[in-house]
Design goal:
alpha+beta, 434 Repressor (Amino-terminal Domain), Beta-Lactamase, 2 domains, five-stranded antiparallel sheet, globular
């Protein structure tokens, strides 16, 4: 671990970020050229004391998980992230096998969508980061581990994952998810995480095996429209705008609805409901 160079690198990257880059207010009395230490600490989910010690060459060796959080919070590029790992005494993450590092440009876009349901997905259907309203709309999809991180795996192994979508749409969703996994296996090749995921599903789901054997490619949801059954708000018909990062095989999904529609009004109610889920048998509070 090169403490001195690591500290210098963190200070320089912090100095290059402006509050507006990460969705923070600038305030009238800001004297710091870039972000404050406490702001970075909040962004990466650690204490200000811990982060400050890293910049002052006194901190312990950060774990790989902590470095990943720092890289994401500072909006580092892949090359900068690899540099960070090496300075901290760790091997660099394998780029081809780990698609969980969100492009800094994509993160800057997401940071500006705080009042909109939006999330970044990997090429394997893993939700990497969500806005607060995305959690309110579809639930927290970032807490899963192992194969269950992938939506296609949950689709075929966890019946609860389908409740969000109307039953008449299940066939198209299943075909689309399977087609996306087929594309990922072709792109990443044998021995990849995508191939491992497909093999796991072939061993667990006869329904997936049948679809897989159909060898469909390029199946997509019609007109980028999605119908969602929200637990409190009911059926919502939304447009799903997609921004693609081809280098990372990641997509930014943004859910919108035309103003004046019932679904638009329901999206506005998400600000009030948040991620709250009412228990069965308890009606929604009246205004």
């Amino acid at each position: 671990m090169d403490r001195a160079t690591l500290a210098d690198f963190l200070r320089k990257r912090r100095g290059l970020l402006q509050p507006e880059d990460v969705g923070l207010p600038r305030g009238p009395r800001r004297r710091t050229a870039g972000l404050r230490r406490e702001e970075v600490a909040t962004l990466v989910g650690m204490s200000t004391d811990y982060y400050s010690r890293l910049e002052r060459q006194r901190g312990p060796q950060p774990s790989e998980q902590m470095l990943t959080q720092i890289a994401r919070g500072l909006h580092l590029t892949l090359d900068e992230r690899d540099h960070l790992f090496l300075l901290a005494g760790h091997n660099t993450p394998r780029r081809a096998m780990r698609g969980d590092h969100v492009n800094p440009g994509m993160m800057r876009v997401l940071d500006r969508l705080g009042d909109t349901p939006a999330q970044v997905m990997s090429g394997l259907g893993e939700t990497l980061v969500q806005t607060r309203l995305a959690v309110a709309l579809v639930g927290d999809e970032t807490h899963y581990t192992g194969h269950a991180r992938s939506m296609v795996y949950r689709w075929y192994t966890d019946p609860a994952s389908r409740r969000l979508y109307p039953a008449e749409d299940h066939d198209l969703h299943g075909r689309a998810f399977t087609s996306q996994l087929r594309a990922a296996v072709t792109r990443e090749g044998p021995g990849s995480r995508a191939a491992e995921l497909a093999d796991a599903l072939l061993g667990r789901s006869a329904e997936f095996a049948a679809r897989w054997n159909e060898h469909e490619v390029g199946v997509r949801l019609t007109d980028q429209r999605k119908r969602l059954n929200h637990p409190e708000l009911g059926l919502m018909e939304l447009h799903c705008q997609i921004l693609l990062d081809p280098e990372q095989s990641q997509t930014l999904l943004v859910y919108t609805a035309p103003p004046g529609t019932e679904s638009y009004e329901k999206l506005q109610l998400l600000h009030v409901i948040g991620a709250q889920r009412f228990p069965p048998g308890v009606s929604e509070p009246q205004a």
